[in-house]
Structure formats: structure tokens, C-alpha cells
Amino acid sequence: MYKILIADDHPLFREAIHNVIADGFPGSEIMETADLDSALELTQSHDDLDLILLDLNMPGMHGLGGLMNLRNEAPTIPVVIVSAEQDKQIVLQAITYGAVGFITKSSPRAQMTDAIAQILDGNVYLPPDIIRSQKSGSSRQHHDHHSIAPELLQALTRKQLLVLERMTKGESNKQIAYSLDIAETTVKAHVSAILRKLGVHNRVQAILSAGDIDFASYLRR
DNA sequence: CGGGCCTGACTAACCATACC
DNA sequence: GGTATGGTTAGTCAGGCCCG
């Protein structure tokens, strides 16, 4: 059957999840770790894992950073975040960083089984209330409780700010090149410089770091 | 000179299509 | 099934231009 890794530092919660899986998916091979490092090690020796259940508040995780590490080390293994948190923005960021689902620890047992089944089927699972609020709330309000790196933005040149602003709007390098009237390769060069100055490794991380920056106020200078 | 800006050449990864 | 191939995108690198 399935081969599943539970990565959570709470023994009681590991046991609970273990039971849920054992009941819902009989015959599955279940492994457990209590910190990120040992989880990373396990993915090296078991690249045939079908799923990793990853706790966000585990030693070595640093929030979503641990998810990125795991995705880098074992990009082929699906990862679902299991967390007590239910903040909409964190859930969406987890998906952006490559998680295939998000299960809240407050979920009833049947819902957890259903969620795991969906994800093993290749679907994406999100908490129902997140989906609902996504659908109804076309007025997106980012609660900017962790607006990062205003001081890092100071290090960016004016042109780099312009490029980053377009990046946050989801434009591709080609679109940015067109709207700023420069070559696409030039945009790539600016993007590279932005990634380096912000200390990140791809444009998604850069966009998340930029958060809800008010570009206009920076560009006014 | 040095830094910002611009560019072409290049590689890696992904994805769809065609073909065997 | 698998795999070859062409297209697109992201990103790096080396180098040239301009200006204080």
C-alpha cells in the first residue's frame, strides 16, 4: 500500500495520526520523525515515499523554510502541511511553496482520513473554510503581520524596484520587458540582482518577501 | 575607476507533441 | 508503455556602455 512519513515533534499527535492512517489505509508503511533533519535524512534513503505529513512547528522548520528545504531535497515526494495554525495567508503560502495540501490539527478524524485520501489520489486538499473565504472574498485583504525586509528594499536600485513591483503583480519576464521597454535578458539580470539582494533563490520567494510593499512611496524618492 | 544598466550566449527545467 | 524533440521560462555569466 502506501508509504507515509509523519514528521511531528509531538509524540501524542504522531500516535494519533498513525492511528488515523492505519485505520483508513490498512497495510500502509508508516514512518515517524520528530525533527526536520531526520526527516530530510529519511527522504534520502526512501525516495519512494508516497506522502510526507509535515508539522510546521517542529525543530528545524523555521516556519515555511523547512518546507522549502524538504521540497529541494526531495522534489518528487508530495508534502502536506499539518498544523494547528489556520491562518489563510500561511495556508496559501504553503501551497505556493509546493505543498499539495494543508490539514488543520483541529480537523475531525473522518475529515483527516478524507483529506489524506484525496491527496494520495493526486488532488490538492485545503481546509473547507479557506476555500470558502477564497471564493466569496474577492476583496483580498492581506493582513500584513509579517511584512518583511523594508530595509532590504532600500538596497534595491530604482530599476530593480520597478521590476520587483511588476513581479509582485505576477508578470513574466517577457511581460515586464515589454512594459518597461527593455530586453527580456535585462529583466532577467535585474531579477537575478533582486534575488541576490533579498537573499532568496527564486522569484516566488522574492514576491513573498516583498509582501504588501507600497512601491509608490519607495519610488517617489 | 566603479556602479548601475543593458545585452547576447548559455544552461536547466518543464511541458506538450510526435513518434516508435 | 518510453523517448525524442521542439518551445517556453527562469536564471547565470561575461562583457560593453554611460556617467559621476
Task: Characterise the protein shown here.
It is a single chain. The protein is α/β, with parallel strands linked by helices and about 220 residues long. It folds into two domains: about 5-125, Rossmann fold (3-Layer(aba) Sandwich), CATH 3.40.50.2300; about 145-215, Winged helix-like DNA-binding domain superfamily/Winged helix DNA-binding domain (Arc Repressor Mutant, subunit A). About 50% of the residues lie in helices and about 10% in strands. It has helices at about 10-25, 35-45, 65-75, 90-95, 110-120, 130-135, 150-155, 160-170, 175-180, 185-200, 205-210, 215-220, and strands at about 5, 30-35, 50-55, 80-85, 100-105. It has a five-stranded parallel β-sheet with strand order 2-1-3-4-5, sandwiched between helices. Strand 1 (about 5), helix 1 (about 10-25) and strand 2 form a beta-alpha-beta unit. Helix 2 runs parallel beside helix 3 and helix 10 (about 185-200) crosses helix 11 (about 205-210). The protein is elongated and about 60 Å long. Residues about 135-150 have low confidence and may be disordered. It binds a DNA duplex (20 and 20 nucleotides) through helix 8 and helix 10.
Question: Keywords for this structure?
Answer:
221 residues, alpha/beta, Rossmann fold, Arc Repressor Mutant, subunit A, 2 domains, five-stranded parallel β-sheet, 52% helix, DNA-binding
How many H/I helical runs? 12
N/C terminus separation: 61 Å
The biggest sheet amounts to: 5 strands, parallel
CATH level-3 fold name of the largest domain: Rossmann fold
The radius of gyration over CA amounts to 20 Å
Spatial order of the strands forming the largest sheet: 2-1-3-4-5
